[in-house]
Amino acid sequence: MNAVVTLRIAMRALVRNKTRSLLTALGIIIGIAAVIAVVAVGQGASVTMQSQISSMGNNLVLIFPGSSRAGGFHGGMGTTQTLTADDGDALLRECPLVRAVSPLVRAGGQCIYRENDWATSVQGVNVQYQEVRNWDVASGSFFTDSDLRGASRVCVLGKTVAKELFQGDDPIGKTIRIKNMPFRVIGVMAPKGSAAWGQDQDDTIIAPWTTVRRVLQNSAFNNVNQLMLSLTSMEVLPQAKQEIGGLLRQRHRPTHGADDDFTVTDMTEVTQMITQVSRLMTVLLTVIASISLMVGGIGIMNIMLVAVSERTREIGLRLAVGARRRDILMQFLVEAVALSGAGGMIGIGLGISAASLLARINHWPVLISPGAVLLALGFSAGVGIFFGFYPAFRAARLNPIESLRRE
Amino acid sequence: MLISLRQVRKVYHMEEVDVPALNGVSLDIASGEFVAIMGHSGSGKSTLLNLLGCLDQPDSGQYVLDGQEVGGLGPDALAGIRNRKIGFVFQNFNLLPRTSAMENVELPLYYGPHIRSEERRERARALLNRIGLGDRLSHHPGQLSGGQQQRVAIARALVNRPPLILADEPTGNLDSKSADDIMALFLELNREGITLVMVTHEPDIARYAKRTIVMKDGMIV
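YS: structure for the whole thing
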């Protein structure tokens, strides 16, 4: 008996009991749909988070000034004033693993253009900031080294600020006031979206750090809030951290035995956390999927046993007209697999729809990996074989005489 | 000889009691015969028919069907013999429910050597035409009368062109008009050379056969 005929007989038997088949397959359908949907959403979320982290910058390493310990008091991070823009220049010069460095001086205040005003942060940086953050100018231009040296009152607006202050007008060449100081707008940055923690990265103004220090903070010192470094690659991170630490210690010469007056951090911890969360989710999903597939499988076994008992006469007749035991075995096994396989396929369709719906509501991307779909299909077929075997085996062992006598 | 039984015994074991069903039966049936087996219930006639139909194996004795020793064959080999050499006709027809007459007739062909689906359908159609059901090809058993259902069952028994047809009370569920029609069909088949062995307890039906065997207490009397 060939495979096509066997499959057709199985499909007909299933279609004949539509409601029963559907209810039986429901366990598989729900299980597979849940797994497909959660995997799709989870992968989408994970990719989003990863892209948000990489949107922070190219192989980013941050250096913060350390805590000060004076007169028995231990201040918090950033309480020392020893980290300077010159440290950044030295790092770029002497560490080949460092590709670009920008200092960051943070200021904030009310910005005004005509009748519009907007409170935002101002980031004082240097020209390498674009490379460190991997962030392009959308229109106009970025400031130059001579702006930096001369502490020119120029600025580049983030997309959100440009929108709020100019309401669609072209901001290039216009003058805005930041904390009452006039700045000329020379460019607008490309949109960057929100950071991993949800902050709008476009709600900012970028200016030469020298200008921010002198004009907005009215300070003559060169210390900065942090240094942002871009490494040549993430693989060299441990070595680079060591070199950076060594150079900074050499430059700052802390007293022997004292704490470093700086802290070097990077994104690996965040990345690790994400990996851990997604691993946990995978384990959880596997457990849920296994349980629901098992429950579904037991349902299939149950209904197949019922089918074998209902169709005992049919089995007896098939045996009488020449069916071998393996023909009967295959017939019921194929029926079980068709049931679970169809359930799997419906489940995949349902899961994809559910994921797309969730994604639309929550503005997540959905990633439906073909691997997960194939795995789901394989698993549902496997469940059919595993749980369908015992009923099929029982059918194949039936005695033709007794089966034919059954009413 | 198409069928040759020698000293065949069969005992059924029922809860510590052994019930002898066949008690040393020897029987020869030549090709082209039409034999009726009669006897009361419990006489062993059904057991004999099951053995002849290779649905069961004797405990002892010898059974040669169409030149082949049947004793000692495994279930798959017996299934092959049933498929090629024997057509079954049952009292309750045993047609697959909600399945067309055509497909019911085609059923034995699925378990034999591979046959193209067109030929399969052609053979079923030809047989149904021949027994006068050419206009009922796609009818389900539920849409057919008892006599028509038994004709479909006979067509199914014939589809693999077996030399032997075994019928177990073929008219037991039919009115006398339909029963006569079925017997007329049997006679026609027999004239064409098909060997028929039929179990019945109705003398009227047994009279159609050319030879009658009566069984009692597991033996031929």
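YS: worth flagging: The interface with chain A takes residues 50, 53, 55-56, 75-76, 79-80, 82-84, 88, 90, 94, 96, 98, 107-108, 110-112, 114, 156, 160 of chain B (CB under 8 Å).
IM: good catch. Also The two ends of chain B are 21 Å apart (CA to CA).
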